[in-house]
Amino acid sequence: MPSLAELFAVAVEQHQAGRLPEAEASYRQILALDPRQAEAWNLLGVTHIQRGQWTEAADCLRRALALKPDEAFYHSNLGNALKELGDRDGAIACYRRALALDDKLSQAHHNLGVALNELGQRDEAVACYRRALTLDPRFAHAHYNLGNALYGQGQLVEAIACFRQTVSLDPSFAEAVHNLGVALKLRGQLAEALTCFRRTIALAPNFAEAHHSLAALLKDLGQLEESVASYSRALELRPASAMAHYNLANALQEAGARDEAIAGYRRALQLQPDYPMAAAALTHQLQQICDWEGLDALARRVVDAVVAGAVQGTKAGVSPFIFLALPISTTAQQQLSCAQQWVAGLVKPAVLPNQPTRPRRSVAKPKIKLGYLSSDYHYHATAMLVVEMFEKHDRGRFEVIGYSYGRPDDSPMRHRLVQALDRFVDLRDLSHVDAARRIAADEVDILIDLKGYTWGARTQILVERPAPIQVNYLGFPGTMGAPFIDYILVDDFIAPPDQQPFYSESLVHLPGCYQVNDRRRAIADRTPSRAECGLPERGFVFCCFNNNYKITPEVFAAWMRIVQAVPGSVLWLFESNPTAAANLRREAVARGVSAERLVFAPRLPLAEHQARFRVADLFLDTFPVNAHTTASESLWVGCPLLTLAGETLVARVAGSLLRAVGLPELITTNLEEYEKLAVQLATDPTRLADLRARLAANRTAAAVFDGGRFARSVEAAYERMWELYVSGMPPAKFAIDPPPRVNGN
């Protein structure tokens, strides 16, 4: 009969060869001969661990420890079994005991780190991983898990280095390649991230999360067809993934397949009813087509999720732009909470490598460097508002740099914008970090973000703090809730001083109206006839050329009552999509108004579109999201606008513009007053003619339509910000006095 030593040699050979059932049988044969063989109990326990038999493993390892209580490896192995059984406290106690007996066990340090990380104790976990790597620098899993822990702390640069080291040690480690791609994407290093995701799928074709990550990146890169295909593959692998359905719907929506996108959002909510991101996206898409069935309840689910997130310290993950556009009114506090939860999901601020300390210098010299950051340096509403201000900035006091990360076009607006700037820098192909480094290297003093949280924004550039002063302006009608944004440019109507508690930025009140405009905006000389516009030859023409998502059931019902009260009148709306037009006609009929009394304006080149305002008699504004750029278009062309002002910025922009052109009587504060005044103006031609005459006289003199005067006001604001900075003072709210008019302007 073979000796115990010979049996051990056979068992170990079987074990090392991966023949686990045979090894188990051999260990049991040894123990049948001598139950006091502690190492046999230990190795039998290890075979059970390798076979996923955690309870049996724990029993064997306890038997081993009863025989040899001071054997560090046994404690470590028992910890592994207990961890898989869900007894993390017991596992941690075992690892700590093992390390007390032998501090050089790299595996025990690593496994203790894993257990601590799962309990959220990341700092201790990081220390454990680092100790394991000190003992064994080629421990690939320790590098990997250290990278995961650092990623969770927002230390992306170090996390990326760890994942790179993991992959260099084990090129077939698919999860490490994937996580490297995720971290690179968050740093804006998209080309390398794309390579990582494709490589992960080559290593592990059924890795659903990798297909999902690839799809998300392809969507960001505008490769929508490939993105949809990748999301579809992820769903084949995980059909019950609500997140995959949601993200596939996002890609479908961007690809123009709105019906399929809506179905995807609904499926995501069926799978996960408490999915506020999907509820918000579905709400917005239903708003786009004016499908209002169940819309109010859906929107309230979104608001409730944001409120709960604020109370519980969680993140609803709802886009602040969609939140502002909800068809129900939200409070300033709720809007701030939504923005704060959103920004908490961004990369945590990181120190820019090799960024020099910016010296504090004189206000007087050299010039203050302004950087305007946007993706909209093309034919876009924001560009059409700011271009004259760029042209009119005082080059004796300011250097003006445009930083663009959007797709270029060859439009006259693009050329005019570039010519209006001292320098134009295209950041499109740079990562977030490299884009921030470029801005920092240019020594920009004040960086003005013109995007906020609107579509295509790259807020991560601002997270890196490339400029000592950072400003939120124009593109996003609300607070960004971000600690890295110092100021927001407003006026005392859209954001009264008492609203400061609901803004993370310091309020800077510009005189008159906060919205800059371009008086050189192109408007076609020719005014179309009513017949060309599809309007009746006679009768009052109410119009609203706002985007369809701004039309709410409550406001539409008011419009129908107004039309009914004014015989022969029609309502002229912008047609952004045929489904919305059909739904609005149906809603009109349901409210007792003939569908023919709704007329839809098709898309036209902007100059021709703006000429259509001359045909309308009165613009009826939306609520709770007002007309913004569209309001200034209407007023500049000469069409009076009736608005309903709410409590928050997004609901007060049109009122600010009306004050600026001397027509404050067209600002109402409740729906009853709004309806009443609309009917009065439509049935009192003299009163309406007086308003039109005053608008015609005032608009050319108003500072809101004078880019030069506006530039003087905003420059005074920038100089005040800089004065506070160089004096060592923190950002503070302040107001700017109106600039003097020069040469009659």
Structural class call reads alpha/beta
The CATH homology group name of the largest domain: Tetratricopeptide repeat domain
Sketch the major β-sheet.
8 strands, parallel
Beta-strand content: 5-15%
Could you give the count of β-strands? Answer: 14
Helix content: 40-55%
CATH topology of the largest domain: Serine Threonine Protein Phosphatase 5, Tetratricopeptide repeat
Which CATH class of the largest domain is shown?
Mainly Alpha
Q: Radius of gyration, rounded?
A: 32 Å
Average pLDDT for all residues: 94
Number of helices: 32
Mass-distribution shape: elongated
Low-pLDDT ranges? 349-360
> How many structural domains are formed by the residues?
4
Report how far apart the termini are. Answer: 112 Å
CATH architecture of the largest domain: Alpha Horseshoe
| Strand order in the sheet with the most strands | 3-2-1-4-5-6-7-14
